[in-house]
């Protein structure tokens, strides 16, 4: 099974232009399935992909669930197996997909966490001082919030992707799809201050990465997550992830009157339905403000709508 997995990952990389994160996750998921099959003796060694049964996959998912696997994680692992077998079927290596009719585990519908505008503004000021590290962290936070970039898109940014004169930045999203999004003057100024603080060799044209670590290498997604968590832990609501800034970017634009189609383009969503969940976030915030501020709302003290009297 190792060789088909390697061939599948190579196909995703070359033909589907999958992101490094997708490649890493799918490789891990398929190898975990392989290891499970061998450990439970549900397949002979070496494992023949054509011999995999639906019952074996269900046993694998049940095992993951018993170990505390979250529905989103189980859904991704099932998607990895489904995509793997679709590839094998197209290549003529197997004649059936054992998970084709298998239902994806139900996931709870939860609204994304969003910072208030005041909290977002405060977060941008937390990297204080004029040290290279503080200037970098502030530029990083400003860029995430100003562009709505995914963390993988942020760490992939090169100097050449920033078009300061036009106020635009080029992002490479999922499937290596490129999009051009606006970037604000505040973020551009923060980037300029950070880049001019770097030593001459680090800020030379030969250094392509926009955001670098202390050794001059490109920042990783995990490093960015740690940076965001460290500063956001000072907020009243506690630490957040880089994706929270993406959610906040979209919701705050919607609050200020931006249309969903424009937000969809800026976020790089393939489907408008993915973007529409921000309308629920905005509505919830609107109702919360109404309940707190309107003297006749009737919900600020009791926590639920007032029952109308019968006439």
Structure explained in plain terms:
The structure is a single chain. Strand 1 (162-163) and strand 2 form a beta hairpin. The protein folds into 2 domains: 2-90, DNA polymerase, domain 1 (Orthogonal Bundle), CATH 1.10.150; 117-293, Intergrase catalytic core (hpI Integrase, Chain A, Orthogonal Bundle), CATH 1.10.443. Helix content is 53%, strand content 4%. The chain is built from 12 helices and 3 strands. Strands 1-2-3 form a 3-stranded antiparallel β-sheet, with no helix packed on it. The model is unreliable at 299-311 (pLDDT under 50). The radius of gyration is 24 Å and the shape is globular. By secondary structure, the protein is mostly helical. It has helices at residues 2-14, 20-39, 54-66, 71-90, 117-125, 132-147, 151-155, 185-197, 221-232, 242-255, 260-267, 272-293; strands spanning 162-163, 168-172, 178-182.
CATH superfamily of the largest domain: Intergrase catalytic core
Largest sheet: 3 strands, antiparallel
Compute the number of strand runs: 3
Secondary structure: helix percent: 40-55%
Q: Quick check: average pLDDT?
A: 83
Distance between the termini: 72 Å
Overall 3D geometry?
globular
Structural class assignment: mainly alpha
Output the strand order for the largest sheet. Answer: 1-2-3
Counted by DSSP, the helix tally is 12
For this structure, the quaternary state is: single chain
Strand content range? under 5%
Please report the first level of CATH classification, the CATH class of the largest domain: Mainly Alpha
């Amino acid at each position: 099974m190792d060789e088909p997995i390697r061939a599948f990952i190579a196909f995703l990389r070359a033909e589907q232009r999958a992101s490094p994160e997708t490649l890493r996750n799918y490789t891990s998921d398929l190898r975990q399935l392989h290891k499970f099959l061998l450990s439970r003796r549900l397949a002979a060694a070496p494992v023949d992909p054509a011999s995999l049964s639906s019952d074996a996959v269900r046993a694998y998912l049940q095992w993951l669930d018993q170990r505390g696997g979250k529905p989103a994680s189980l859904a991704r692992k099932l998607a990895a197996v489904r995509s793997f077998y679709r590839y094998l079927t197209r290549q003529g290596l197997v004649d059936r997909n054992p998970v084709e009719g298998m239902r994806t585990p139900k996931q709870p519908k939860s609204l994304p966490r969003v910072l208030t505008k005041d909290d977002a503004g405060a977060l941008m000021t937390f990297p204080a001082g004029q040290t290279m590290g503080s200037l970098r962290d502030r530029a990083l936070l400003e860029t995430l919030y100003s562009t709505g970039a995914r963390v993988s898109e942020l760490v992939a940014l090169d100097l050449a992707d920033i078009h300061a004169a036009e106020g635009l930045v080029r992002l490479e999203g999922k499937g290596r799809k490129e999009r051009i999004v606006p970037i604000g003057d505040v973020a551009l100024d923060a980037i300029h201050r950070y880049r001019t603080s770097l030593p001459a060799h680090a800020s030379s044209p030969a250094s392509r990465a926009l955001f670098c670590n202390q050794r001059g290498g490109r920042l990783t997604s995990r490093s960015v997550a740690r940076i965001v968590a460290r500063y956001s832990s000072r907020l009243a609501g506690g630490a957040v992830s880089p994706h929270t800034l993406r959610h906040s970017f979209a919701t705050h634009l919607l609050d200020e009157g931006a249309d969903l189609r424009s937000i969809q383009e800026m976020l790089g969503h393939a489907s408008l339905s993915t973007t529409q969940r921000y309308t629920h976030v905005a509505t919830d915030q609107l109702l919360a403000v109404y309940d707190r501020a309107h003297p006749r709302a009737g919900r600020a003290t009791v926590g639920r709508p007032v029952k109308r009297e019968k006439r």
